[in-house]
Design a protein that fits this description.
globular, Rossmann fold, alpha/beta, 14 helices, 9-stranded mixed β-sheet
């Protein structure tokens, strides 16, 4: 297949064009209510590379837009991870633009929304992401190509958005799509009904060993709630309880024998590394509280018949751990909100670190199964790297992935992982991080890593 690089970014489209001045809002009434503010300093990573704008859309979602001085007439619409539990202002919403500045340096325009409110809401975030695409078009004109990029939880958002907004509503099949392709990096692609099962398990297993979340003298509540709605607990309070029980901020030599035993048991049962245990417990606390409230206060998580293994006394753990049953209506609501059909209509390219400590790489296997079940295998290419980070991988790898996707869109032939490796190697001359793709890797199914949900009567 034909390669794409920065030096050949035309790709049968056009040669690199110098950015023209944006239209004035009064000349484009559709843009007027949400007109981006001119004169905003770009983050340091893009100094002298691009012009930047920020503003808020009609629903109050803050956003950033960056357009390089030498724009290739293609747009990357970014869906950020989280979900964040506090409202993102335009002062802190710039984080994602800085993290993925490599795309702007490649020549792409970039647009990212903070979403209209904090908290869980895949459908809401997907709509806000597509609204920003519309806002960009109204203000700056229709790009020649538009790529949707989802990172982490934003991968779930983008995967849902491409199923909902790939093509204009009511348009014929041969109409130009709203999005020409999708990049999903470190994506939570198993859908809400499966993404969080190991965190529900963590709440139950942690409580069995530590019994301080909640403490015995505090009001008790079912752990699937995350927290009661009126709880005043803050992340720092939870960190103190975890430290009290497990000493995770201490070197191993400073932990008590009991702390070592409890920590080893929790990590033996729950498939997350020690360095992100606190983060997963935070998500199983504060994100769960928000998620459960968003779907009506009912329980979408089940561990009634889960057989936990990996501890020093599995029988005692399984007898003593708190059990809970999912409400079918809650599962259905969460599925409608965030599960994926796999019915993609444009090329999708994923990138995932094999040792991702936050979004389990096995999510990719669940997404692959959905896409295959929908008969859309030819539109999905998954790539995996020998890295152990989540939020930021190699810039050269990102560049290679975007190069390969644009070449795929332009040429029509599905690439191979080898094509992505070659693209990365070419970009490694100007972008940092190197290339660590493993073309032979295939992730296991999720329930080969996470304790499977067994049918009634199937566990002890």
């Amino acid at each position: 297949m034909h390669r794409l690089s920065h030096h050949a970014a035309g790709l049968a489209l056009a040669t690199l064009a110098v950015l023209t001045l944006p239209v004035r809002a009064q000349d484009n009434p559709a843009a007027a209510p949400n007109d981006p503010k001119d004169g905003v300093a770009c983050p340091a990573e893009l100094k002298d590379v691009a012009r930047c704008w920020h503003g808020s859309d009609a629903n109050g979602a803050n956003y950033w837009i960056a357009i390089p001085h030498h724009w290739n007439r293609m747009l990357v619409v970014h869906a950020h991870g989280g979900p964040r539990m506090s409202h993102a202002t335009n002062d802190d919403n710039v984080e994602d633009l800085a993290r993925f500045a490599v795309t702007v340096k490649q020549g792409f325009a970039w647009a990212g929304s903070s979403y209209r409110r904090p908290g869980y809401g895949v459908l809401m975030a997907a709509e806000d992401t597509d609204n920003l695409r519309k806002l960009f078009v109204a203000r700056f004109g229709q790009p020649e190509r538009t790529i949707l990029h989802g990172q982490s939880w934003g991968g779930n958002v983008a995967a849902k958005a491409i199923e909902l907004y790939a093509r204009p509503a009511g348009a014929p099949k041969d109409a130009k799509p709203n999005y020409d392709g999708v990049v999903l990096t470190a994506g939570m692609l198993a859908g809400g009904t499966m993404n969080y099962l190991h965190r529900a398990d963590l709440r139950a297993v942690y409580q069995y060993y530590c019994n301080n979340h909640p403490r015995p003298d505090e009001p008790q509540y079912p752990l699937w709630q995350g927290l009661p709605a009126d709880s005043t607990m803050k992340p720092k309070d939870l960190e103190a309880r975890v430290e009290e029980c497990l000493g995770i901020k201490l070197p191993d030599s400073k932990r008590s024998a009991e702390q070592k035993r409890k920590l080893a048991n929790i990590l033996g049962v729950i498939p997350v590394p020690e360095r992100t245990l606190q983060s997963h417990l935070n998500w199983g606390t504060f994100t769960f509280r928000d998620l459960v409230q968003r779907i009506g206060g009912v329980n979408p998580f089940d561990n009634r018949h889960v057989a936990y293994t990996g501890s020093d006394d599995n029988a005692a753990l399984n007898r003593g751990v708190q059990r809970f049953d999912a409400d079918p209506k809650a599962v259905a609501r969460l599925a409608e909100e965030s599960d994926l059909s796999g019915r993609i209509e444009v090329p999708v390219l994923t990138l995932h670190a094999i040792d991702d400590p936050t979004a389990l790489v096995e999510y990719e296997a669940e997404y692959r199964a959905k896409v295959a079940g929908a008969g859309r295998d030819k539109l999905l290419l998954q790539t995996f790297t020998r890295e152990d980070d989540h939020s930021k991988l190699s810039d050269a790898e990102y560049a290679g992935v975007f190069d390969t996707l644009v070449a795929w869109i332009a040429g029509g032939a599905k690439p191979s992982v080898a094509d992505v490796e070659r693209a990365c190697a070419q970009e490694a001359g100007r972008f940092s991080g190197g290339c660590r793709f493993d073309a032979s890797y295939r992730p296991r199914r999720l329930f080969e890593r996470v304790a499977p949900r067994m049918p009634a009567g199937g566990g002890k």
